Amino acid sequence: MDKQQLLSLIKEKAQEGTITLSEVKEQFKKNETHLDDTNADSSTSKLSYVLYGIGALIALVGVLVLIVTYWEDIGFVGRIGVTLGIAFTTYISALCMKEEHSVLSSVLLIVSAILAPIGIIVVLRNFNIEFNVQTQMWSSLALAIIFCTAYSYTKRNIAILLSLLFTGWTYYTLIDTLFPVTGDIAAWTTCIVGIAYVSCAYLLKEKNIDTDINIFNTQSIKNILYILGTSMTLGSLLTLGGIFDLIIILPLFCAFYLSLFIKSKIMLGLSALFLVIYIFKMTGIYFANSIGWPFALIIIGLLIIGIGYYSIYLSKKYIENKSQKL
Amino acid sequence: MTYKHIPLITAIGLPVLFIIILAFVTILPNTQISPEYDFVHTDTSEQYNSGTGEVRFNNSYQVVDGKIVKKKIEISPALEAQDKMYFSQIEYKEAPTLYRYDIQANSSQEISFKDAQVLDISDTKKSPDGYSINFEYTNSGIFEMFGSQDNSGYFIKKDKGQKPLTGFESNMYYSENDIEIIGWIIN
Hints:
The structure holds 2 protein chains of 2 kinds.
Chain A: H1 3-16, H2 21-30, H3 36-69, H4 75-96, H5 102-126, H6 133-154, H7 157-178, H8 183-203, H9 218-240, H10 244-247, H11 249-261, H12 265-291, H13 293-324
Chain B: H1 6-31, E1 39-43, E2 54-57, E3 59-64, E4 67-72, H2 77-86, E5 90-93, E6 98-102, E7 107-111, H3 113-117, E8 121-122, E9 132-136, E10 153-158, E11 161-164, E12 179-185
Parallel strand pairs in B: 2-5
Antiparallel strand pairs in B: 1-6, 1-12, 3-4, 6-7, 8-12, 9-10, 10-11
């Protein structure tokens, strides 16, 4: 039996439900000696990624310290050099990197994305232009387009995330430019941006080249967007108050259902967390004065245990089992 | 269109739809705002702007039988003693300066008490055509992070629509109590 026949057989048995992914993985664990080389490579890669991250962080701190300490001394050209200059260089370097250096390329894109807005502020300040909502809108729109271009050229997942973050920034400033913003409009805008992030995360297609050890793989980016989107949507709805204290139950359970539909443990966990926050909020507003905090805390505690148990039950029944089937 | 398109429509369509809804909710009611009546007001910050110390007025204004009249302000000995304790110099003036706000031109002009006396004034909270003036504070929530535009100020309001009153002099425009409305000009 050759390799292709063996794989076809595994696929066939998995479709019949005879074997699951966990059972296949179990067989690999029993023969870990075959994986020694792969594990060694994986450890080296992980060390490289940690070093990339630490290096990027140190470089960013260095730039910030340089700007703060020697702001007047380094002059306009110096300020531009350490902000926009490094942002541009890291961006171009990221674009030029080959596939095997995808993590380094992603780290460089992050450095570029952090330094570029600082560079824009430096340029605007030099020409006595305020970094107000209008200038922020155009700047963030330009950066969103630049990082979208980076994605189309490199196919790095991080470029999508950065582009979406800048697009969200553009949207906030656009709303602020067009309308007289109040607290409620701010909450609704956050809710809309959150829903858009969740939708974008769902639209991201996982690529074959993704590996588990790549911290910037599609699944990681999807998870970041799910965390951002769910937190923004549910968090903003929780701040609305009034009739929405009652209506929010609907989006909360929609989030639970959606997490099962898209098989996202992170969204399930966040939905459970926001349900707990909601219970605390409602208890504080409506019940604490009537039944007293000690009794309310006992009920909240029991409810949290119930939510935790039910979340784990849902995760095991609808997410883990289904995702493990090949 | 299948359910597969729903995330794409949500990601792009929902933010666009939100802008359209906001336009209807916030801009449309404001297009219906067309107040007709001017009003008379004073600048309460005048008492702090002398540069030499506190300003005290001998008279205030009130509306009696549809006309603006002066009303003597009684200064109690206790307040007089307090003033002497806190302020090195106190300037006494006859009455606060009167201003007429031209609602069509959206501007405020100083008028004399003599000119104000001939006007027919209504001192009700709302104008005869149902408008009221309120100070609104900006509460931009998360937008403060982006250095949100400061939309605080005085607004003329009716139902859900409102229009900013931008014609006040700049020193009258910073806090809720900077202007005092005396009344609406009927004639």
